[in-house]
Design a protein that fits this description.
The chain is an alpha+beta fold. It has one domain: Gcn5-related N-acetyltransferase (GNAT) (Aminopeptidase, 3-Layer(aba) Sandwich). Helices cover 27% and strands 33% of the residues. An 8-stranded mixed β-sheet has the order 1-2-3-4-5-8-6-7, with helices on both faces. Helix 1 runs antiparallel to helix 2.
Length: 168
């Protein structure tokens, strides 16, 4: 596979990451990663970047103050992506291990949200295998619980939220 490294987001990463996703048809603008860099500098989030032989492979962020109100202080792993050409090599698991280790330094519990349509199937299975359980509050859309009977669009904003204890 080559040499896997996981490190913090750096100043030169936003352009590289955005270009890698643009090349596969995903809309992830440079400004998104510039904001992540600013958030990292201010302590709002940490961004972990995976490289293989110094080539960008994926990333995950840890949002220290989740906007999902029921988490109430539980840090949230969010925006977790591995480029398709690097999948099924353990990179996603290594990123999750690093994110969970980082969170464990400050919290006994970590949260994560996962989308509901088929493109999220691999992530759904991964989170369950890693010990994440649904928080029991049902469907969430744009960070807000969806009341029974309400219709929503099944897009990236529709999620189930999960938590995992980090210290047993």
């Amino acid at each position: 596979m080559g040499e896997l490294a996981i490190r913090a987001l750096r100043d030169d990463d936003p352009v590289v990451i955005s270009a890698a996703f643009t090349a596969i048809g995903w809309d992830k603008p440079v400004t998104q990663y510039e904001k992540y860099l600013a958030d990292q500098r201010s302590g709002l989030r940490n961004v972990l970047v995976a490289t293989v032989d110094d080539e960008f492979a994926g990333y995950v962020t840890v949002w220290w103050e989740s906007t999902y109100e029921p988490f109430n202080g539980i840090p949230e792993i969010s925006d977790f992506n591995v480029l398709p050409t690097f999948r099924r090599r353990g990179i996603g698991s290594a990123l999750m291990d690093a994110a969970e280790t980082l969170v464990a330094e400050r919290s006994d519990t970590v949260g994560i949200g996962v989308g509901l349509y088929a493109d999220y199937g691999t992530a759904q299975r991964m989170y369950v295998r890693r010990g994440y359980l649904p928080d029991g509050r049902g469907l969430v859309y744009n960070g807000k619980q969806v009341p029974p009977g309400e219709t929503i669009r099944n897009d990236d904003a529709a999620n189930l939220m999960f938590t995992k204890p980090l210290h047993t």
